[in-house]
């Protein structure tokens, strides 16, 4: 079940909201847990067992870590069991066939594939549960004693299938003493509808441009068309993923949670280092706090810093998918971030904002080209086309530009802070007229989005598979 579906919008979500608001506070985590497991089981019921197993593993190990905290070795043992169990689940389901395929190619063997479906959101909830066990081990939080509360945290449906990654320490207060109100309901609905509009009206429709470019035989794609397609995918994945994050944050607000922001207008960045402080912020924070800093960060000299950055970004790429293009994508960013830290820092500081933003956007668009194309031969050809191994432009470019120009202009404007800040001024205005205008705008966005959902056949969630 995805948020941009009739089943979710008109059946599941209203029921969860009604139950949350009419039942006493002590029942809310139970409602959230049961509702989240039903949500998770809507597509693949068998994987509810996997979710429950994940809850039990980390709940039990968290309790044992705390119980034996004064023991010299047992806390480390239980932390090791927790991390090993989570990585084993993630590795088996997400990377099993990838490993087998590469072994078969390398050794000319015929090991049969597992052909397992990928449990939805496994990359997100395994990272959440690992962070919980690590934080209990570090003494940053107390182990949760109520398994219903812990189960509600792990399975929480608003961010279950595509993040943001929520740390237990950030929501424990709300889990234990959650308050809901009409003000939070209104704010949550506002954020959800804006995210729905990003996803359905912008991501889906701009995505059609990239899908159209991919259908053109690669030897007929002009340089300009290749860049147009790459730019379209960059907008698509931004509006898709940030739209989903907005919907998740809105749903959290409706249910009494304050999730941290996951995007901060990343296309406004003036370096790739800044881009990763603005894009998928919850993942960046996770790798920083639970891998980069424990490895030593940048505290032990240039060589070890380069090593640490390379490890983190190799794993960041691998986290996104079981394919070589994702690994290349991670290594690509590792190289750029190392260059910015040790070579380009002074040069970039000496340039103007226009140059820095142009530099960043070009590298971002190239990165998402790598991200979008799993076929490495096709990817290599597409990149060569982008950099001059083709005619500059042709009539297909003119046709596509004319067909999608208005949508692309809207996308450019919507990727800046200006529209949302203007809308928030209306929404929170004390003027009844201005507030009514914002509510009418929300209704318009919702019903137009609904029309596209009912009538459209192209409604992917790009991060749904992670």
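Q: What amino acid sequence fits the structure above?
A:
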């Amino acid at each position: 079940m995805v948020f941009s579906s009739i089943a979710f919008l008109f059946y599941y979500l209203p029921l969860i909201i009604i139950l949350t608001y009419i039942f006493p506070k002590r029942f809310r985590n139970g409602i959230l847990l049961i509702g989240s497991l039903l949500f998770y089981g809507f597509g693949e019921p068998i994987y509810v067992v996997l979710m429950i197993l994940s809850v039990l593993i980390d709940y039990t190990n968290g309790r044992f870590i705390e119980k034996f905290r004064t023991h010299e070795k047992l806390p480390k043992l239980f932390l090791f069991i927790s991390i090993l169990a989570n990585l084993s689940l993630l590795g088996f389901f997400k990377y099993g066939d990838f490993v087998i395929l590469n072994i078969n190619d390398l050794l000319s063997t015929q090991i049969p594939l597992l052909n397992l479906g990928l449990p939805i959101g496994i990359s997100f909830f395994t990272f959440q549960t690992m962070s919980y066990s690590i934080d209990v081990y570090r003494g940053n939080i107390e182990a949760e004693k109520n398994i219903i509360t812990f189960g509600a945290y792990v399975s929480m449906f608003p961010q279950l299938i595509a993040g943001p990654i929520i740390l237990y320490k950030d929501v424990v207060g709300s889990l234990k003493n959650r308050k809901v109100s009409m003000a939070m309901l209104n704010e949550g609905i506002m954020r959800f509808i804006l995210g729905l509009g990003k996803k359905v009206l912008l991501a889906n429709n701009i995505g059609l441009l990239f899908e159209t470019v991919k259908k053109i035989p690669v030897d007929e794609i002009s340089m300009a068309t290749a860049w147009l397609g790459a730019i379209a995918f960059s907008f698509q994945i931004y509006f898709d993923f940030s739209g989903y994050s907005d919907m998740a944050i809105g749903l959290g607000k409706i249910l009494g949670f304050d999730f941290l922001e996951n995007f901060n207008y990343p296309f406004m960045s003036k370096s790739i280092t800044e881009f990763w402080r603005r894009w998928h912020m919850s993942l960046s924070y996770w790798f920083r706090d639970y891998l980069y800093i424990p490895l030593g960060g940048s505290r032990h000299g240039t060589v070890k810093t380069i090593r640490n950055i390379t490890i983190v970004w190799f794993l960041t790429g691998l986290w996104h998918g079981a394919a070589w293009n994702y690994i290349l994508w991670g290594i690509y960013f590792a190289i750029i971030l190392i260059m910015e830290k040790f070579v380009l820092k002074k040069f970039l500081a000496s340039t103007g904002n226009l140059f820095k933003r142009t530099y960043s956007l070009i590298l971002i668009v190239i990165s998402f080209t790598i991200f979008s194309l799993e076929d490495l031969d096709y990817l290599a050809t597409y990149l060569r086309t982008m950099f001059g191994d083709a005619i500059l432009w042709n009539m297909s470019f003119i046709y596509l530009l004319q067909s999608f120009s208005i949508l692309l202009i809207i996308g450019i404007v919507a990727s800046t802070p200006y529209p949302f800040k203007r809308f928030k001024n209306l929404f929170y205005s004390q003027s009844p007229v201005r507030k009514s205008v914002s509510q009418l705008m929300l209704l318009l966005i919702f019903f137009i989005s609904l029309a596209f959902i009912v009538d459209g056949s192209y409604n992917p969630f790009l991060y749904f598979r992670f």
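Q: And what stands out in the fold?
A: The CA atoms of residues 180 and 255 lie 6 Å apart.
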